[in-house]
Specification:
There is one protein chain. The protein has 147 residues and is of the alpha+beta class. The chain is 42% helix and 24% strand. It has a five-stranded mixed beta barrel. A hairpin with a 2-residue loop joins strand 2 and strand 3. Helix 2 packs antiparallel against helix 3. The protein starts with a helix and ends in a 5-residue tail after the last strand. 20% of the residues are buried.
């Protein structure tokens, strides 16, 4: 019966961690510990309990986590910086990767910027598209006239 208590305590700890973090990380192992509790209640040997715990946890992690992440993250709001990708900006200080200078203005905010293409300067006033974010710098590309 001590093994049942061990698995039950582990289950409670894992569920508590999941509730605290909401990261969909420990819930899969909680499922494994639940199966191990059942095995322990039927006096299964310890190696069977551990095997069941590990195998059920891995199966849940590999097969249900991607589905859960898809549904739980569908309403995820992008951070301020992530929401800038794809937007247009105006170069306010020439962007020159070689000299490591350049700023752009987007949504009324100034950002340090670098060009997607090394060796190509973007003069002040150029309209660019934000392609990525690297640290605190926007990675930009000159807007094509067809856009």
């Amino acid at each position: 019966m001590n093994q049942v208590v061990f698995w039950l305590i582990l289950l409670i700890i894992l569920v508590a961690i999941e509730i605290a973090t909401m990261g969909l990380t420990t819930i899969w192992f909680a499922g494994g510990s639940f199966v191990a509790i059942i095995a322990a209640a039927f006096d299964a040997p310890l190696y069977v309990q551990i095997t069941l715990f590990l195998s059920v946890s891995v199966v849940l992690l590999l097969f249900t986590r991607p589905i859960a992440m898809k549904y739980f993250n569908k309403d995820r709001i992008k951070t301020n910086a992530e929401s800038l990708i794809g937007k247009q900006a105006v170069v306010t200080e020439e962007v020159d990767n070689l000299l490591a200078v350049g700023t752009v203005s987007v949504d009324g905010q100034e950002w340090t910027a670098r060009n997607v293409m090394d060796g190509v300067k973007l003069p002040k006033g150029t309209i660019v598209i934000i392609r990525a974010i690297s640290g605190v710098k926007l990675i930009v590309e000159e807007r094509n006239e067809g856009m």
